[in-house]
Write a structure and sequence with these properties.
Layout lengths: L6 E5 L12 H11 L5 E12 L2 E4 L15 H4 L9 H13 L4 E4 L6 H10 L7 E8 L3 H11 L7 E7 L5 H4 L8 H20 L3 H4 L1 H4 L3 H4 L7 H9 L6 E4 L3 E2 L3 E2 L2 E4 L13
Parallel strand pairs: 1-6, 2-5, 2-6, 3-4
Antiparallel strand pairs: 1-10, 7-10, 8-9
Helix pairs in contact: 1-4, 5-11
Length: about 280
C-alpha cells in the first residue's frame, strides 16, 4: 500500500464557514483526526493569484489574512496561528521549476481565508504547519491539472495537499438569492461528482477540463474559473486507480455547494460521516 497522503478538494464556501461549520465542518475535523499527522499542509486557494509565475509562502509564522468585507465582526477577530514551513516551500518551488513553472518564494505572504478557514476545521489546534502555493495567471483547467501533477511528489514526503475552491461560486447570486436551494446547484454538483469518480477510475480527466462545455449550468455555477481550478489541481495530484470519498457538505445560502473530496487512501474513524 502506498504511503502517500491523500489529496483533498475542499469547498470553502463563504467566509462565514469559519463560524458556521454546517455539515462540512465536523466532517473535516473528523477527517483531520483520522489522517496520519502530516509534516505540513500545502494549500492552493483561488484567493491568491499571481502574475509572472507561481509563488510559495516562506514565512515562518504566516499571518491570518481577512481578505473579505461586510461580514460579522467575529470573523475579523479570528487568528489561525499555524507555523509555516519554509523548507518545504523551497522543496515545492524546486519541484515546480523542474516541471517548467516559473516559481519562487514569497516570504511575506500570509494565509488567505481560502486557506485558514478550511484548515482550521481540519486542525482546530493549529498544530500542523501550513504554507500556500499560488494560482499563476493566466491559468486554465489544463494548466491547473499540470500544477497538481507537479505537486504530486510531495504526497510521499508527508505533505497533505489541500486544493481549496468551491463546487459552485456565483457571487452575483450570493446576496440576492430569494431562499431555497437553486436546482442548478445540485445538478452541477452531481455531474462533477460522477466526472471525478470517472477520472479517478480511468485516469481520464478530460471531461473535467472541458466542464464548461459538458457540465449542466456550468456558466451559472462558475461565471469565472478560479474557484473551480483547485479541483483540477487535486485531480492532477491524485493518481488513477486511487479511491475517492465524498464529503457531502450540503448547500449553504441556497447557491453554494459544499461538496468536497478525499482522493487517495486513508483510514477513516468509524464514526466519520464520509461517503464512498
Amino acid at each position: 500500500m502506498s504511503t502517500a497522503l491523500p489529496v483533498l478538494f475542499v469547498s470553502h464556501g463563504a467566509p462565514t464557514f469559519a463560524i458556521e461549520p454546517g455539515l462540512a465542518g465536523p466532517q473535516l475535523t473528523a477527517l483531520g483526526r483520522a489522517l496520519p499527522v502530516p509534516e505540513a499542509v500545502l494549500v492552493v486557494s483561488p484567493h491568491w493569484e499571481t502574475r509572472g509565475g507561481v509563488r510559495a509562502t516562506a514565512s515562518t509564522q504566516p499571518e491570518t489574512i481577512h481578505d473579505f468585507g461586510g461580514f460579522p465582526r467575529a470573523l475579523y477577530e479570528i487568528r489561525y496561528p499555524a507555523a509555516g514551513h519554509p523548507a518545504l516551500a523551497e522543496r515545492t518551488v524546486a519541484l515546480l521549476a523542474q516541471a517548467g513553472f516559473d516559481a519562487g518564494l514569497d516570504p511575506q505572504r500570509g494565509l488567505d481565508h481560502g486557506a485558514w478557514v478550511p484548515v482550521r476545521h481540519l486542525y482546530p489546534d493549529a498544530q500542523v504547519p501550513v504554507f500556500q502555493v499560488s494560482l499563476p495567471q493566466p491559468l486554465d483547467p489544463a494548466g491547473a491539472l499540470a500544477l497538481g501533477r507537479a505537486l504530486a511528489p510531495l504526497r510521499e514526503q508527508g505533505v497533505l495537499i489541500v486544493a481549496s475552491g468551491s463546487m459552485t461560486h456565483n457571487l452575483h447570486e450570493f446576496r440576492g438569492h430569494g431562499g431555497g436551494d437553486a436546482p442548478y446547484v445540485a445538478a452541477f454538483t452531481q455531474w462533477v461528482r460522477e466526472a471525478v469518480r470517472s477520472a479517478m477510475r480511468t485516469g481520464d480527466p478530460q471531461p473535467l477540463i472541458d466542464y464548461r462545455q459538458l457540465a449542466p449550468h456550468a456558466q451559472r455555477a462558475h461565471p469565472t474559473d478560479e474557484h473551480f481550478l483547485p479541483l483540477l489541481v487535486a485531480i492532477g495530484a491524485a493518481a488513477a486507480g486511487e479511491p475517492m470519498a465524498v464529503i457531502d457538505g450540503g448547500i449553504t445560502y441556497g447557491i453554494l455547494s459544499m461538496e468536497s473530496y478525499v482522493l487517495g487512501r486513508f483510514r477513516p474513524l468509524a464514526a466519520q460521516p464520509v461517503a464512498a
